[in-house]
Amino acid sequence: MEIMRVVRDLVTTQRHALLAAKSLRVVEDYQGNLSVALDAVGCKPGDFVITIGISAARLAAGDPRITTDMTIGGIIDEWSEQEWRS
Amino acid sequence: MEIMRVVRDLVTTQRHALLAAKSLRVVEDYQGNLSVALDAVGCKPGDFVITIGISAARLAAGDPRITTDMTIGGIIDEWSEQEWRS
Amino acid sequence: MEIMRVVRDLVTTQRHALLAAKSLRVVEDYQGNLSVALDAVGCKPGDFVITIGISAARLAAGDPRITTDMTIGGIIDEWSEQEWRS
Amino acid sequence: MEIMRVVRDLVTTQRHALLAAKSLRVVEDYQGNLSVALDAVGCKPGDFVITIGISAARLAAGDPRITTDMTIGGIIDEWSEQEWRS
Amino acid sequence: MEIMRVVRDLVTTQRHALLAAKSLRVVEDYQGNLSVALDAVGCKPGDFVITIGISAARLAAGDPRITTDMTIGGIIDEWSEQEWRS
Questions:
Q1: What is the DSSP pairing of strand C34-39 with strand C24-28?
Q2: What's the pLDDT at B44?
Q3: Which residues face E24 on adjacent strands?
Q4: D71 pLDDT higher than 80
Q5: CA closest to D65 among chain E residues
Q6: What DSSP element (H or E) covers A83?
Q7: How would DSSP label each residue in C31-70?
Q8: Fewer Cβ close by (within 10 Å): the C or N end of chain A?
Q9: Separation CA A18–CA B72 (nearest Å)
Q10: pLDDT at A22 over 80
Q11: pTM for the full model?
Q12: Beta pairing, strands A24-28 & D2-9
């Protein structure tokens, strides 16, 4: 799993059906690289979160038919930008 | 999932049978690195899209027997080159 | 599998249910890049460990429904920072 | 999927049984990084090909028991070194 | 698959049960980055080998319940450091 920060929501009108009912978030790693993750916990911009990849991402989405390769599986209680970047 | 931009179509005459009925697109990431993705939504060059990888790529293709490791699963409504590269 | 060093525990109060019963550790690679791994062996900060990824991470967690993509599967008996970084 | 160029054949006498009946090719990406891929289409050195990874690689090999993580799934009709490297 | 060189054996006394009966090797890529792979063919330090990743690693280990994400699946007959690094 990776430690990421939520940047913003992502809106896609033309989207694959199985993803349609879930919220997508743009997340960044400590170098500022952006990815898109499905939100399974209810997070908001600025939160530090744990992202789950590989086939576990589909399980973490609550339904293995959901076509995600990255799912936000938890919000980290205590984490600072200092810990993240060093 | 990753945010990519569609570059062009890709034509392959000698191709594995299970991929044959689907359109392939060359896509690039924000650094200009090229990959090939199966198009499940109907996109065109210049579109910013979400690409889905890992085993979810096969599900997003509509048939898990389709031999893809990257599938375009949505077109992003509002995205600019500025957001992408910073 | 990768050779990693355990940095600290990770506390997440809002966490996906299937991960809830297991301990999470922050681990670093030889370049200091941080990841989060599920601990299946009982390790402590400073230990050099083997991390298992991909679908094998779920099996190594003891239950393939556990939504992990990285699991600590062993503690290395003899390993030094010198071997790791050269 | 990735766009790769075939470099040469690879001969391994001590090889895992399930790979034994298939040809292996050394392939390179646009930066010259080498990998090994199973050839499912019949390609030759110099061909630009599409390589399929992840679990789809096993399906593209024609038998999901074949132990490959990268399979050549198509030969690209029109591709030049210029397109590849820019 | 990747071309790697075997560096040494790896001893782990506290190890996940399903890995216990197999030998682990430290391997390096052409840049000297170290990983750990399960040995399914019987190789020795200095051998150039093919490593198999993703879910195929578990199949190549001879039992898909074995929790490996990288398995040595073959020894390369003719390979030199020159080919590897250029």
A1: antiparallel
A2: 95
A3: E38
A4: yes
A5: E59
A6: helix A81-85
A7: T--EEEEEESS---TT-EEEEEETTHHHHHTTSTTS--SE
A8: C
A9: 13
A10: no
A11: 0.93
A12: unpaired
User: First vs last Cα of chain A: how many Å apart?
Assistant: 18
CA atoms within 13 A on the CB side of C74: 25
Going by pLDDT thresholds of 50, 70 and 90, the confidence category of residue C77 is confident
Q: Is C41 on the interface with E (CB under 8 A)?
A: yes
Pairwise CA distance, residues E86 & E84, whole Å: 6
Q: Give 3-state DSSP helix, strand, coil % of chain C, rounded to 5.
A: 15, 40, 45
Contact yes or no for E54/D56 (Cβ under 8 A): no
By three-state DSSP, how is residue A9 classified?
strand
Residues near E18 by beta carbon (within 8 Å), at least 6 away in sequence? C59, C60, E65, E66, E67
Residues of C in contact with A78 (CB under 8 A): 11
Say if CB B58 and CB B64 are below 8 A apart: yes
Distance, in angstroms, between D29 CA and closest chain E CA? 13
Contact list in E for residue C59 (CB cut-off 8 A) is 18, 58, 65, 67
- Cα dihedral sign for A41, A74, A17, D64? negative
Q: What ipTM, to 2 d.p.?
A: 0.90
Q: Does the CB of B14 have a partner CB in chain D at under 8 Å?
A: yes
Higher pLDDT, E15 or E63: E63
Cβ–Cβ below 8 Å for E76 and D11: yes
- How close is the nearest chain A Cα to the Cα of C79, in Å? 23
pLDDT per residue over C25-42, tens digit each?
999 999 999 999 999 999
Touching subunits for chain D (3+ Cβ pairs under 8 A)? B, E
